[in-house]
């Protein structure tokens, strides 16, 4: 099959676009509004985009009412947000927190989740999540789109602090198969990471290996910096 988005029809019962780019890490983002209301929402367009310094992004389409998402508004207003790792065990809470609610509603309470304070920023963390990034807001890139929901805000943040539950560490690494991070597919489908394998690129030198690990200090050592 062949089609051009926005020009020709794909002819399928369900739109295939989001199911082609899979799996996608979930940006379970907690923020606090300027009025002091805590917010929690999952975004399936989330990624780390650099490691020295560590920077992440989440992308948020507008609401069905054509307004900006609370997570975006809050991050811009207060200068901070937290990424909480979504896991298979937390899948129901993640789903509940995705509901489109008014800005004065605390999704932590709706999803039955406990809060734990951050060390460097105001927004709280999901206590049940095994990994958190405390992030300082950097900037928003706003991309115009079609219809009330098409416009998207891409929010960038610098990771200031990382929290990892010691229980999910094994031999100096995160035990991903035990954590079972949740990932988004298309349609109403999700998956979780249960199988892990390792493979090194050919001709890998120490600096490249450190870069693949995301270890800025090791990169410096390997390059003699």
Strand ordering within the main sheet:
3-2-6-9-10-5-4
The first-level CATH class name of the largest domain: Mainly Beta
- Global mean pLDDT: 95
CATH architecture of the largest domain: Roll
Structural class: alpha+beta
Could you characterize what this model shows?
The structure is a single chain. By secondary structure, the protein is of the alpha+beta class. It has two domains: about 15-195, Electron Transport, Fmn-binding Protein, Chain A (Pnp Oxidase, Chain A, Roll), CATH 2.30.110.10; about 200-225, no CATH class. It has helices spanning about 15-20, 70-80, 90-95, 105-110, 145-150, 175-180, 205-215, 215-220, and strands at about 25, 25-30, 40-45, 45-50, 55-60, 80-85, 115, 125, 130-145, 150-165, 170, 175, 180-185, 190. Strands 3-2-6-9-10-5-4 form a seven-stranded antiparallel sheet, with helices on one face. A three-stranded antiparallel sheet has the order 1-13-14, with no helix packed on it. Strand 4 (about 45-50) and strand 5 form a beta hairpin. The longest helix is centred in the first third of the chain and has 9 residues, at about 70-80. The chain starts with 16 loop residues before the first helix and ends with a helix. The mean pLDDT is about 95.
Write the layout of secondary structure elements.
Elements: H1 17-20, E1 24-25, E2 27-32, E3 38-43, E4 46-51, E5 54-61, H2 70-78, E6 80-84, H3 91-96, H4 107-110, E7 115-116, E8 125-126, E9 131-143, H5 147-150, E10 152-164, E11 169-170, E12 173-174, H6 176-179, E13 182-184, E14 190-192, H7 206-213, H8 216-222
Antiparallel strand pairs: 1-13, 2-3, 2-6, 4-5, 5-10, 6-9, 7-8, 9-10, 11-12, 13-14
Helix pairs in contact: 7-8
